[in-house]
Design goal:
- This protein is an alpha/beta fold.
- It has a domain of about 120 residues.
- It is built from 18 helices and 18 strands.
- The chain has a 14-stranded mixed beta sheet with strand order 1-2-3-4-6-8-9-11-13-14-15-16-17-18. A two-stranded parallel sheet has the order 5-7. A two-stranded parallel ribbon has the order 10-12.
- The chain starts with 6 loop residues before the first helix and ends in a 14-residue tail after the last strand.
- About 30% of the residues are buried.
- This is F-box domain-containing protein.
- It comes from Favolaschia claudopus.
Amino acid sequence: MQVRVAPECASKGHKSAPMDDQLAKAALALKNLESVFFNTPDPYGQLLQLRQDLRLMLSPPYQKLPSELWVKIFSDFTPVKFPLNAPDEPLHLVPQVCRAWRDLVSQCPQLSASISVILDGEEPDVARISRSAEQWLARAGDICPMDITAACAGAYAKTASVSPDLVSDFITRIALPRTNRLKHLELALPFQCLQPLFDLPRGSFSCLKILSLLPLVAPEHIPVPEAGYCRWHWPLESKAFESAPLLREVTYSPDFLWSFDEIEAMTGTNSIALALSNPNPVGALTTFHSSFAPRFFLPWVQLNSLHCTMTALTPDQWCSVLTHCGGMETLSIVIRPHSDGQQPLAPVRLQLLRSLYVAAYCGGGDDMLDRLVAPKLTSLTCIAPLFHLESVTSFQTRSNVELEYLGLGFKTESPDLGPFLENHSALTTIAFVVSEHFPTVVWERIGRCELLPNLTTLSVLLTALDVSMVVDIIESRWDNTDFQVEFLSVRPPYLQAVKDELKRLDRFGCAQVDSSQSQRRVIKDSRLMNHTGGTGR
């Protein structure tokens, strides 16, 4: 197809003149802005946004295409795994792209402004990987906002957590020199490698929108309460991210490099459920409450997502923060008990909150729920040795919501469980971490759909005591095509009992247990069979 411009139209410039005027005005505005940009305070990022908008307006047309479209375009130019059915269909390969098209792509900096690095294997050459990443990002020039993702995985994650100098080169060469251009930063690296980011001055992250830091924590890093320091909480006094004008999503959640079995060995218990249901935690769990951060600096007013699962504050401290978080949609926090003499504050209304995760390993969880109102909430998870169903019910009633997802990680009183579940008929997914004490009648009523009639997913930390009743539920609900059961963990002593009980489902032709996986799932439709990975690396 060709497009021609009539000579008379081209000569008069009916179409081009207005556009030329706009571009000329934009160029002048950008020139004037550049002369004062670096010397003018910009606490809300308005000048930065104007500068980016003007640059985008003056950029070539191909630079205005969204990155998702570029990815879609070039996904067509990859070798196919199988021959095409029809011989006359074209086979698109990279060598067949014309030289001009390739040259155009090489000049598009947006395609080089994103990088994802996985450090795994026995001894990855971090220096070589850093050099390659440096060369790739250099193609993006000095304008494009950047996305950088890096993670240690597999056995190398434990190696790096013990010897962080092995991967420090990546932070020094890749992340630190580009902090003022980072739009998305996600790092799962040893804490010592992340610390330099917190040591930067205010204003170092002018473009950052999404921050996800997952410090690696090995078993030998578990602190003792007397130490007064815990490497898995947000560093005290750091203000590096406090003035990030565009920051919307923050995750700071330690990546624990051990499995459920290893945690059980460290806590001295024979069950995670027992550890969580013990009002006097022992072993490693006693350190959870010490990971508090009394001074916690972030641009709270603009955040819509926060996941800090090991940075504990008291309910009052969290409420004083959350009063500034009117736009919060997703919240995952950990609570520590009140100090003596603190007066409770008025409830905080989080108008837009849809998902809430509250962990209170040494108490305070009920107090936190009592301080919140969330009229749009659909997902709630409560993890603690000390939690009460009454607090959950009161919170739901006060917020006037019907939950779709509920995760209960605490021991519940058996007589209260049935009436509690009757008030949650809208639930589609429920997870029980502690379930061996559940009365048989509760399991039977779930199987008959008298309780939780809309349930599509049941997640349970399985023991030999309740596996038979869970299999009964699977059989009872087999005609419900969408129903599935997830075994959050099957400990080795219970594995044979689980296998034996699941044999009852052989007649349906799709019950499977993979002993190499720590999460087991039984789904009616064998085409949807999905055995998810474990809890540790």
